[in-house]
Design brief:
Number of strands of chain A: 6
Helix content of chain A: 40-55%
Strand order of the largest sheet of chain A: 3-2-1-4-5-6
Helix content of chain B: 10-25%
Strand order of the largest sheet of chain B: 2-1-17-16-14-3-12-13-15
Order of helices and strands of chain A: EHEHEHEHEHEHH
Order of helices and strands of chain B: HEEEEEEEEEEHHEHEHEHEHEEHHE
Radius of gyration of chain B: 20 Å
Largest interface: A-B, 28 and 32 residues
Shape of chain A: globular
Oligomer: heterodimer
Structural class of chain B: alpha/beta
Structural class of chain A: alpha/beta
Chain lengths: ~240, ~350
C-alpha cells in the first residue's frame, strides 16, 4: 500500500511520464487505482510504460504549440474529464550547463518554452475540464513541478532556474485567480533526485546522496490528496 | 489568440428581446446587467473534435472530404455519421462543392493514417455511417492529429483546434463548436458569480449546422447525444425553487435540457439523445431565455427561437439585425431572447 487512500475513479494526467519523477508518479498513481494518462515524446517508451502500468500513453512534446490541443483532446477523451494535472515535463536548457553569458538565446528560449509556456498552454487547454470537475465537486488540482533553482541563484543553472522561477510565479498567480473556480494550484519542489535530468545536470553526483524519485512521487501524491480533500471532502474515500 | 478573439469582442453587440416582445440593443459586455441574483446560466462545455477529414475514395481514386457529423454510439470514435463532399476545401462555399463519387456500403475511404469503410448509406447519397479500422484509442490518436476543425468560407485561414474550443471546453464530443460559448470568458463568469448568478454546464455533442445541400439541411440537426451532470441537474432544481430564471447559452443547451425535461419540469442527471427540431409550438419546460448567435431564418438554430417568441416578434428581430448590421457567423454578435409571456408555457 503506497497511500492511505484508494484513488479509484481519480483522473490524473502527468507530463514527462516516461522517466524520473514522472514515471514514478505514473507507477504510484496507477498502483493506487487512479486512471492515469501520461505524456512522453518517445513513442516506443510511451508504449512500453503504458503496457507496464496500464496508464494511457500520449505521444507528444509539451514544447510544441501545435501538439498541445491534440494532447489535451486525447487526455480529456480517454479519462472522460480531468481532476488532476501534473506538469512535470522539464528541460534543463543547455547541457552541459552553461553560464548565462555563454548561453545561446535559443537555449534560453527552449528552456522557457518547455518549462513555462508548455505548462501554461496545456493547463489553459485543460482548464475547462478542471473547472468542470470542480463544479461537480470532484476537486481539481494542478501541480507544477518546481525546483530549488527557482528560488536560489545557482551559477550555471540560469536558463533552467529562470524558467522554473517563472513557472513558480505563474503557479502562484493562477492559484489566486482560480480559487473561485475551485481549481487549486500547487508548486512543488521535489528536491534533488536520482533522475536522468539530474544526471545530465550533475554527471558526477553520487546517487546515494540523492532522493529516490519514488519517495518524491509519494510525497507529491500525499500533497495532491491533501488539496483534493480540502476542496472535495466527499470525492475520496479512505481505503477500506 | 483565437479567431474568436481576433474579432474585437469589445465591440460585439447584443440584441435583447424581453418577455413582452420589446427589442433593445446593447454592447454584449453589458449582458451581466440583464441578469438577476438567483438566475442560472447553463452552458455547453463540449470541446470540438477535428471532424473534417481529407482523403481519398479508394475505388475511384477521387478526393473527398468527410465531415464527421454525429456519434453512432456515444463516445465510440470508431463509428460516426458522416457527410461526404467531393474535392475542394472550406474556402469554397459549401453550396458550390462538387458531390462525392457515388458511395455504397463496403467502400474504403483513406484519410492519411485513418482507414474507414462505409457501413451504410442513409436516406441521402452523401449521408453515411462510417467505421474506422483500429482500436478506439488508436483512432482517437490519429483523429486528434490528422483531423481539422470543420470550417466555412467566411474565414479563409485554416482554423486550429485552439480556435474552435471555447474557454470552458472540457469534453471532446462536439463536431462543430457550441459557438454561443465563445462569448464567455473566465472574467465574465467571475462577474456573474459576484452578482449572485449561478453557473452550470452540460455536455452536448453539437453536430453540423449546415451542409450546403438543401435536402440535407432540412434534416438538421441530426440526433445529438448529451450528458447532464449531477451538479447541473441540482443547479436547475435550485433555480426553479428560488425561483430564478434558467438562461441557456446556445441552442444546444436548449436541445439537451428540453429533451431531458420531465413533465414536472425537472431534469435528471443522465446521458441522452436529443432528436428532432425544436421549433414553433415546442413546449419549453426548463429554459426561460436563450443567449445565442445571430442566425438566418430557415436555419435550425433560428427556427428554435420560434419556441421562445412568435413570428411577429421574430420578424422585427430579423429586420433589426439587417438594419443594424449584426454579424451572423459563429464568431459574430449575439441575441438574448426571453420566452415571451404570450408563448404558452408547457402544461405541467
Amino acid at each position: 500500500v503506497l497511500n492511505d487512500f484508494d484513488l479509484r475513479g481519480l483522473r490524473v494526467a502527468v507530463t514527462g511520464g516516461t522517466s524520473g519523477l514522472g514515471l514514478a508518479l505514473v507507477r504510484n498513481l496507477t498502483a493506487c487505482g487512479a486512471r492515469v494518462a501520461f505524456v512522453g515524446r518517445r513513442a516506443q517508451l510511451v508504449e512500453r510504460i503504458s503496457k507496464e502500468t496500464g496508464a494511457y500513453g500520449v505521444v507528444g512534446d509539451v514544447g510544441r504549440k501545435e501538439e498541445i490541443h491534440p494532447m489535451a483532446l486525447e487526455i480529456a477523451w480517454t479519462l472522460g474529464g480531468l481532476d488532476v494535472l501534473i506538469n512535470n515535463a522539464s528541460s534543463l536548457g543547455p547541457t552541459p550547463l552553461k553560464l548565462l553569458a555563454d548561453t545561446e538565446c535559443e537555449e534560453l528560449h527552449e528552456a522557457l518554452v518547455v518549462n513555462v509556456v508548455g505548462p501554461f498552454r496545456l493547463t489553459k487547454a485543460l482548464f475547462g475540464a478542471l473547472a468542470a470537475s470542480a463544479r461537480e465537486e470532484r476537486g481539481a488540482v494542478v501541480i507544477n513541478i518546481s525546483s530549488d533553482a527557482a528560488v536560489n541563484a545557482y551559477p550555471s543553472w540560469g536558463a533552467y532556474g529562470a524558467a522554473k522561477a517563472a513557472l513558480r510565479h505563474l503557479t502562484a498567480i493562477w492559484a489566486e485567480e482560480a480559487k473561485d473556480e475551485g481549481v487549486r494550484f500547487l508548486s512543488v519542489d521535489p528536491g534533488d533526485m536520482d533522475t536522468p535530468l539530474h544526471a545530465l545536470a550533475v554527471p558526477d553526483a553520487d546517487p546515494a546522496d540523492l532522493k529516490r524519485p519514488e519517495e518524491a512521487a509519494q510525497e507529491i501524491v500525499a500533497l495532491m490528496l491533501g488539496a483534493l480533500r480540502e476542496n472535495a471532502p466527499l470525492a475520496l474515500a479512505p481505503r477500506a | 489568440m483565437t479567431a474568436a478573439d481576433r474579432i474585437d469582442r469589445q465591440f460585439a453587440k447584443l440584441l435583447v428581446v424581453s418577455s413582452d416582445g420589446a427589442i433593445s440593443h446593447l454592447p454584449r459586455a453589458a449582458l451581466a446587467t440583464l441578469l438577476h441574483p438567483g438566475d442560472l446560466i447553463v452552458a455547453n462545455d463540449a470541446a470540438t473534435l477535428p471532424a473534417s477529414l481529407h482523403g481519398v475514395h479508394r475505388s475511384t481514386g477521387e478526393s473527398i472530404e468527410a465531415r464527421l457529423a454525429g456519434w453512432v454510439s456515444f463516445r465510440d470514435p470508431t463509428r460516426f455519421v458522416a457527410v461526404v463532399f467531393g474535392a475542394g476545401d472550406h474556402r469554397m462555399l459549401t453550396e458550390d462543392r462538387p458531390r462525392p463519387p457515388p458511395l455504397s456500403a463496403g467502400d474504403r475511404l483513406e484519410f492519411g493514417p485513418l482507414i474507414a469503410s462505409v457501413e451504410c448509406v442513409l436516406d441521402h447519397p452523401r449521408l453515411v455511417h462510417i467505421r474506422f479500422a483500429g482500436s478506439p484509442a488508436s483512432v482517437m490518436r490519429d483523429l486528434a492529429r490528422h483531423g481539422r476543425p470543420i470550417q466555412y468560407a467566411h474565414i479563409p485561414e485554416p482554423l486550429m483546434l485552439w480556435d474552435v474550443w471555447t474557454k470552458i471546453a472540457a469534453n471532446p464530443i462536439a463536431f462543430e463548436s457550441p459557438s454561443a460559448g465563445f462569448a464567455l470568458d473566465w472574467r465574465t463568469l467571475k462577474g456573474w458569480r459576484e452578482r449572485g448568478v449561478d453557473f452550470a454546464t452540460l455536455s452536448h455533442a453539437a453536430g453540423l449546422s449546415s451542409t450546403g445541400d438543401p435536402a440535407l439541411d432540412r434534416r438538421l440537426p441530426l440526433d445529438e447525444f448529451y450528458f447532464i451532470p449531477e451538479a447541473c441537474a441540482s443547479a436547475i432544481e435550485a433555480a426553479k425553487s428560488r425561483p430564478g430564471r434558467v438562461i441557456a447559452i446556445g441552442t444546444s443547451v436548449v436541445r439537451a435540457l428540453e429533451s431531458a425535461a420531465a413533465a414536472d419540469r425537472t431534469v435528471r442527471a443522465a446521458e441522452g439523445r436529443a432528436s428532432g427540431r425544436i421549433a414553433r409550438g415546442a413546449p419549453l419546460r426548463i429554459v426561460d431565455a436563450i443567449f445565442t448567435g445571430v442566425h438566418q431564418p430557415g436555419e435550425s438554430h433560428y427556427e428554435l427561437l420560434r419556441a421562445f417568441a412568435d413570428d411577429k416578434v421574430l420578424d422585427r428581430v430579423h429586420a433589426a439585425i439587417d438594419e443594424r448590421d449584426y454579424r451572423v457567423h459563429e464568431f459574430g454578435d449575439s441575441l438574448l431572447v426571453e420566452r415571451q409571456a404570450a408563448v404558452a408555457k408547457a402544461p405541467s
